[in-house]
Amino acid sequence: MKALDIVTIGHFSIDCIFLPQANVFKKALGGSPAYVSFSARQLGARVGVVSKVGVDFPKKYINMLKHGGVDLFGLKKEKNSATTSFNLEYSANKRRLILRSLAPPIRLTDISSDFNAESIHVAPIAGEFSSEIVVALRSRAKVLSLDPQGFLRRFDTKGKASMKNFKADKIFENVDVFKSSLSEVRVITGKSEKGLKATMKRLGDLGITVVIVTLGRKGAALFFDNKFCCIPSFPPKRLTDPTGAGDVFAGAFLAEYLRNADALWCACVGSAAASFKAETFGPVLFCTKGAIYERAKHLFAKVHTGSDAQCVIDAIGKGIKQKSD
Fold first, then answer.
1. Where are the domains of the chain?
2. Which of 27, 55, 87, 94 has the highest CB neighbour count under 10 A?
3. What are 234-287's pLDDT values in tens digits?
4. CATH architecture of 2-324
């Protein structure tokens, strides 16, 4: 039986990314399993994936993953199918997401019982499996982590992505670590919650041990042990490609969290790793473990805690409410 630290479940993708500064589309290996795995591996975690791809999935991506130390025990290549693929267009701090193709769904029967993982990170990108899988996996790992982004996306006939409602308290009751973006978490709880602080506390009250909301350039908000914290972002030396920064945050956080470290420190490690991601194109981080820790130490000295953190989160929450009203 395989012994792994982190197994990520979700589709790999072939991303066609348009960056304004380059004025051209560039292809890259994408999907949460890629970004989470490379990030966690950079911090020494043993990583594996459960995913499905089509016959068009490039061999160079397989080699990249293997060379990077990612165990592909759960990767299935489906005949007569295409790999999940997106167009991602960035402009003026906005992202336009277009689904070009979708690989076959991942079913519970596709998830082998022949592995032992400290943590399972459930991270759909285009609704490729049912939410019931989250509950079914509860007993398979010490730490069950969820990024619900793929449950929240719907696509029109042209593949354009938009948000849909997703209310699944029963699922959240089985989750230890929850990571979501600022826009996504508001959709999950709806307008019934007044502000980001109330939203995060509500998720914590459902039984989630650590609630993380990534805030882009503003860093991240954290709720654990009935307290709020705000972690700043580390300004990248150059902004090359923000794709996958949230997944990189999750991978680094989990790798550190499994060492029984403090959740606040782990979030600083996640934010530091995400800053390195913004400096590079694609899922591979070109930095050392020591460099990530150096940036994390810098961030740890600047975190907001206690009433200070609550004021920051309240201010962010008011901004969300105004936009949604």
1. 2-324
2. 87
3. 998 888 999 999 999 999 999 999 997 799 999 999 999 999 999 999 999 999
4. 3-Layer(aba) Sandwich (3.40)
